[in-house]
Amino acid sequence: IDDDVAEAVIHEKPVTPELLKAGIRRQTIANKFVPVIGGSALKNIGVQYLIDAVVDYLPSPLDIPPAKGQDPDTGQPVEVPTDDNGNFCSLAFKLWSDPFVGKLVFFRVYSGTLSKGDTVYNPRTNKRERISRLIQIQA
Length: 139
What we know:
Blueprint: H1 3-10, H2 17-29, H3 47-57, E1 67-70, E2 77-80, E3 89-98, E4 102-111, E5 119-122, E6 127-130
Antiparallel strand pairs: 1-2, 3-4, 5-6
C-alpha cells in the first residue's frame, strides 16, 4: 500500500491500524489508491463506515492544491489557497430553477465566506450579482 507499511512488513514490525490508515490516506490523496466501501443506504448498512472512511482517507480542503481562477479586475490567472478569512472564491457546479423557491445556484466555496446581501463577480456574464438568499443543503 505504502512505503511505510511495506517497511514495517519487511522489518517484521507490527502493522498497526493507524499506520495502515495513514498509508491508505497518503495513497488516496496521491490518486494511487481508491478505497471501496460497500453498504446500503436504504437499510442503513455500512453508512457509518462510509462516513468514517471519508474522514480517514479523503483529503480535507487543506490537503488539496489551491483553486485556480481569474482575477475579475485584471483578468490575470490567480491561485486561491484555502482560507476562511481570504477573498471569496467559489465554483458554481449546478443551476436549478425550482417553481417554489426560484433560481438556485449550487456552489463549492474554496476561500472566504458569503453572506446575504454580499455582491459576487460572475465571470461567465462579466457582471456582479447580489446574493439575495442563502440556503444550506443537507443530504
